[in-house]
Amino acid sequence: MSTKHILILVGLTLSVFSCTLFNRFVGDDHVLFEGNAFYTSWSHWPDLFTRRYLTPGTIGGGSPGPVYNSGSVSYRPVLSLSYFFDYSLWKLDPFGYHLTNLVLHLFNTLLVYALLVAVCRNPTAALLGACIFGLHPTKVEAVAAIGYRADLLACFFQLLSFLSFIYYRTRHKARYWTGCLAAYFLALFTKESAVVMPLIFLAYDFYFSSSSGPVHIPCSFVWRKPPLNREAIGQISLRAQGMPLPWPPDEKRGLILEYMLLMALTVFYLYIYFFVFPNTSLTHIQYLGGTLARQVTAVSWIFTRYMIDMILPFQVTMLPPLYLPAIEPFPFLRLLSGILLFAAAVAMTIRFYKTDKPASFFMGLFLVSLIPVANIIPLANPMAHRFLYFPSIGFAAVCAIFLARWQGFSGGIFKTALIGLCVAYTLPLNVRWNNDVSVAKTLLEHYPDNIKAHLILGWQYLKAGDKKQARQQFAACIRLGDRDPWIADLMKAAHE
Fold it and tell me: Is 380 helix (H, G, I), strand (E, B) or coil?
């Protein structure tokens, strides 16, 4: 890896995201830390392993008041442990919490660079891919909001696990396998979406470890260094022609045992997730839009929206909490758009399997890592940019692999313009996450009928003593159909 490239990534990431250090608590951050006794003392950490850990329903609603909960509806003790550390160091100073998020994002960007170097063996493509990953506007939501740290922290452990897996495959040192398992374990108990990692490991073995290619030397030849007898020479000849070879029997047995261990770890986690500490939001599952047909359409349209936001950074806007994009008008066209885009992505994965394995692999990584957030099981929050945090590694890698081939002056100009475009839209979006007022006003610019944005803005106006503005926002909540008794109480307070 190039020291120059690392310095470039550090400089760009810090220059674009350092402004988040001066942001305040926003949204659910208040519920997590202000008036919540859960993280105020290390004596509470044993509750990470009791039913008191889980928060009923979803956080962020209801009237304010002292609470005691982790803020999580699913079992994420590693994430909560990071909040314990933050509170012990910074108490209620948001600077330190944002510093943790920024450092995690910086580390993730550097790890993406290391991953691309390991897989593509092209430092230029790795630098470009890491820049696209680290500076894309879809990263703002995960970095700027403390309560959305799960995606940052899970991605950190997922990348550590994957890099350890690759180093284990190429160097066969036991410490890398131990690191792979440990990091995967931590990723699982940070966020449930990490459950796809064994599939990614399996894909890596399928693409790079079982057959020869221009990038990777098969493990069997690195590990065993067989004598150059007639059989070995024949195998070398077949590998030189790019023909796949089966795993030797003893290595195949070792491979099966490795995946059995990964699956045992995954099954253990799923047992904890579904039976010991069941996700409290799963008790309220219903089809998105109310029917199966509307859910299928919504899933397809959400995939389309994700692809549009990844391809066109200037289309990225702040998304409301619990956001379900409308499928009207023209629901059939929205359904068809997602199907066609998904089919195109699958076709690209298959098409480049023989001609460009890294590109094919990373497109597959993008699709596989979207599975947990694809609303196959409807999510309480159907669409959020933070859900793209880990999957976007695959998208950024594919873009970088192809753009790295565009040489010359025009290629340099285009790549520079692309990074500049990401910076131009990411930086101001970071600033808009500064406080509740700026967040609510930004949401209302794009979603004027969003009830929660009106409620947040009204509450902030009421606290500031601007009762006229507060009444207008609470009236908007009532006009849009919110019948929560707390709204009526707030409206009365605004008239006093």
Answer: coil
Distance, CA of 13 to CA of 102 (rounded, Å) = 9
Tens digit of pLDDT for each residue in 424-472? 999 999 999 999 999 999 999 999 999 999 999 999 999 999 999 999 9
Q: Among 77, 15, 137, which Cα is nearest to 388's?
A: 137
- pLDDT tens-digit readout, 133-154: 999 999 999 999 999 999 999 9
Q: What domains sit in the chain, N to C, each tagged with a CATH number?
A: 3-210+246-432 (no CATH), 436-495 (1.25.40.10)
Categorize the per-residue pLDDT at 64 as very low, low, confident or very high, splitting at 50, 70 and 90. Answer: very low
Of residues 347 and 215, which shows the higher confidence score? Answer: 347
- With the CA atoms of 477, 483, 485 and 490 taken in that order, what torsion angle do they form, in degrees rounded to the nearest 10? 10
Q: Which phi and psi (to 5°) does residue 227 adopt?
A: -65, 150
Alpha carbon distance 41, 38 (integer Å):
7
- Report d(CA 157, CA 139) in Å as an integer: 17
Q: Measured between alpha carbons, how far is 218 from 212 in angstroms, rounded to an integer?
A: 6
Please state whether 71 falls in left (phi above 0), alpha (psi between -120 and 50) or beta: left
DSSP 114-143: HHHHHHH--HHHHHHHHHHHHH-GGGHHHH
Q: Can you tell me whether residue 383 is helix, strand or coil?
A: strand
Both tokens of 287, joined, read 């089809």
Q: What is the pTM of this model?
A: 0.90
Q: Which residues of 225-248 are buried (b: 16+ CB within 10 A; e: fewer)?
A: eeeeeeeeeebeeebeeeeeeebe
Cα 284 → chain centroid = 24
Identity of residue 246: P
* Residue 123 to residue 116: CA distance in whole angstroms: 8
